[in-house]
Structures are given as structure tokens and as C-alpha cells.
Design brief:
Length: 177
């Protein structure tokens, strides 16, 4: 009976060490802090929903505070997207690829700061906004910059497409008058 008791104690000691090791490894997952503010171009937008997707699966939703601010942590080594939503506004999506070229375990990442501007749906009256279903920005690690940055060429293309839609909507509105 004494040897059984010793075996159980040994098993419990090993099990406890394994649990502690697993918990320690789980705590070492590197994270990229993301913080930002959502406006309508002029005023802060309180109550916007920010939906976090890992891959294409929604994993969390947060709501902006009275200053239109939000913050979140993104796990390094994953594909994420943030979708910004508010009733009466055209949604906006930003894709963030957090793959990093080296072991990120002991690295503390600088926050990725975003200023998001949502435009009212009525500004697009009379035009097809399907192109705005694509991400407005793509962010990934840039070796030259030594940090996470948006793909400037892609973002400029989306801004041009958005500007063209707004121009077409304005022209469509003038024809109806």
C-alpha cells in the first residue's frame, strides 16, 4: 500500500510539472497589439462593432468607446481580419497577416495604430459598391521597415476605387435633380 501511495504521489508530481510547463508555454504566445480610432471623417464614432476574424472565422467582437477607440491583441503567426461595422455606414475590412520571419517568443511588438474612417451609405446612392467588399488595407510584416505596415500600392488602389464610386454617386445624384 505504501508503494501505491508513492506511485500516486510521483504521478501527481509529474502531472503538476507537465501542467505548469503547458501553462508557461501557453503564456508565451507572441501578440501584436492593435489600437485605433473610428470616425466618420470628422466625428468620433461611438458604438461601432469591430469583429475580429482568425482566418475567416469570427472569434471576437468589441465595441468602440465614446471616443471611437478600440484595442485588441492579435496572435502572431496567423491571418486575421478586422471588420468595422456601424448602422448606416459602409463596412470596412482590414486584413492583417501576423506571420513573422523569426521566433517571436521574446519580442514585444509595438502597437499597430489604425485610424479608420467609415462613410455613410447614403454617399454611395446609385452606385454598385461590391468593390468595397474587398479589404480596404492589407497589413503584413515589412523587413525593410522592421515592423508591420500596410501594402501601400494595394491601399492606394482601394482609395482610388472608393473615390471613383463617390464621384459616380455624386454624378448620379445630380442627374436625378
Amino acid at each position: 500500500m505504501c508503494s501505491t501511495s508513492v506511485r500516486i504521489r510521483s504521478f501527481l508530481a509529474v502531472f503538476t510539472v507537465l501542467l505548469a510547463t503547458t501553462a508557461s508555454v501557453a503564456q508565451q504566445v507572441a501578440m501584436l497589439p492593435v489600437q485605433g480610432r473610428i470616425t466618420d471623417g470628422e466625428s468620433k464614432l461611438e458604438g461601432c462593432r469591430v469583429v475580429l476574424l482568425k482566418g475567416n472565422v469570427p472569434v471576437d467582437t468589441i465595441t468602440t468607446n465614446k471616443n471611437g477607440k478600440f484595442e485588441h491583441l492579435l496572435e502572431i503567426g496567423q491571418d486575421h481580419a478586422l471588420v468595422f461595422l456601424k448602422e448606416g455606414f459602409v463596412p470596412k475590412r482590414v486584413v492583417i497577416d501576423t506571420r513573422f520571419p523569426e521566433d517571436p517568443t521574446d519580442i514585444v511588438f509595438e502597437p499597430l495604430v489604425m485610424d479608420i474612417s467609415l462613410l455613410a451609405e447614403d454617399k454611395y446612392t446609385g452606385v454598385d459598391t461590391d468593390v468595397l467588399d474587398f479589404p480596404f488595407a492589407i497589413i503584413r510584416y515589412d523587413r525593410k521597415m522592421g515592423g508591420f505596415a500596410q501594402d501601400q500600392a494595394y491601399s492606394m488602389g482601394m482609395q482610388r476605387a472608393n473615390g471613383a464610386l463617390l464621384l459616380m454617386a455624386a454624378r448620379a445624384g445630380k442627374r436625378q435633380d
